[in-house]
Amino acid sequence: MKKAERILIDNDLCHDKVAEKIIPQLHFDDNKDLAEYRKALREKFISIAGIDKIVPNACAPSITIEQDEMRQGYRFIRFVFESEKNCLVPCYLLIPDTNREKYPVALCLQGHSTGMQDSIGVAYTEEEKAYQPHGAFALQAVEKGFAALCVEQRGMGERMSLQRERLWGGKCGFAALTALLLGRTILGERVWDVSRAIDCLPHFPQCDADKVLVTGHSGGGTASYYAACYDERIKLCVPNCAFCTYEESILKVYHCPCNYMPRAYEYFDMPDLSALIAPRMLVAVSGVNDGIFTIQGAREGFEIVKGIYKKADAAENCRLVETPGEHCWMEDIVWREICMAAKKLGWEI
User: Fold this and answer.
1) Rounded CA separation 307/302 (Å)
2) For residue 150, which of 86, 92, 167, 251 is within the disulfide window of CB 3.0 to 4.6 Å?
3) Is residue 246 predicted with pLDDT exceeding 90?
4) Is 160 helix (H, G, I), strand (E, B) or coil?
């Protein structure tokens, strides 16, 4: 008997074929009432992200100032607050030294770097040095006239469980997978922390809590987008190298576990969630050569966004900006877009 050649097995083929057949139950439909759609979408998003599991463990922020000093061009404050019981969140707050009464606030979220110290240009390792000066989001914000609030995200920097991660071999993977086991997601936890950080702003009189934007790169861009979906106090959302359809990003290319929410694609795609941001301003920045959040997916997804914003009578409040780069933060382009949007909102910077 002639032996058959060994069959090449594609372990992902089954998933790919299942995904091809899925039409998310809450996919945007221009024929449906937008208010009712938003209500159903918000309830499902909060549930899928596991934010509803965090609420019972909520507590007062209890802010502790650890450092407060003047530096060249800005006041530097390091503070820690409790976002939920037994969960401390370290932050940096940079306030420009230009003698204005109040400043719009730029929430700056690092992606999978070594931590929020990158945002203030601090580099301890060769990896961190290679990330500078592009990664100094907070210093860039101050230069443009914003107060900058850096939030250390769960599973990153100071909030990485070193002992457990050393055994696991990843960065935020242990925290992400543990959250899933508890009915949460680390994405939902990061969104919660950003929202609670905004709660802290009235403690600092020079921060205008009515003028808040959020921006970040890669994983920080992802958290920025979902945070704007959850917290309506965020008036401007600028995710960099993060906005994309699931099909062209986390369903196609390996990503850290922190990008995933169980069963999300049964109900919505990333562009659908822009209905929770509209009519507030959304500027998605994408690299034309980004290999993990593809420009094709960004373009296809933004067609859905445009339909949503048109239905919300806010077509002028959404924009897709394409950079000539790969998966990178191009600060000149990002801050140009942020400043243009801020001025459109009437903010003084």
Assistant:
1) 9
2) 92
3) yes
4) coil
Pairing of strands 281-287, 318-323: parallel
Nearest to 325 by CA among 312, 316, 334, 336: 334
User: What is the predicted pLDDT for the residue at 260?
Assistant: 95
pLDDT per residue over 21-66, tens digit each? 999 999 999 999 999 999 999 999 999 999 999 999 999 989 999 9
Residue 196 vs residue 253, higher pLDDT: 196
**How far apart are alpha carbons 310 and 300 in whole angstroms?**
16
Do residues 239 and 224 touch, judged by C-beta distance below 8 A? yes
CA–CA separation, 338 vs 20, rounded Å?
Answer: 36
Nearest of 196, 200, 195, 211 to residue 102 by alpha carbon: 211
Say whether 318 sits in a helix, a strand or coil: strand
Phi then psi for 212, rounded to 5 degrees? -120, 130
Q: Which distant-in-sequence residues (6+ apart) come within 8 Å of 147 by Cβ?
A: 93, 94, 95, 96, 103, 104, 105, 106, 141, 204, 206, 207, 208
Cβ atoms of residues 199 and 95 within 8 Å? no
Q: At what angle do helices 186-200 and 173-181 cross, to 10 degrees?
A: 100
Task: Please say whether the beta carbons of 297 and 248 come within 8 A.
Answer: yes
Name the β-bridge partners of 94. 76, 148
DSSP string, 246-309: STTTTTTS---GGG--TTHHHH--GGGGGGGTTTSEEEEEEETT-SSS-HHHHHHHHHHHHHHH
Other beta carbons within 10 angstroms of residue 324's beta carbon come to 9
Closest to 165 measured CA to CA, from 116, 91, 112: 112
What's the pTM value of the predicted model, to 2 decimals?
A: 0.95
Other CB atoms within 10 Å distance of the CB of residue 100 = 14
Torsion, CA 71, CA 74, CA 80, CA 81, rounded to 10: 160
Tokens of 13: 């083929």
Flag whether pLDDT at 126 surpasses 90: no
18 burial type by CB count under 10 A (0-12 exposed, 13-18 middle, 19+ buried): exposed
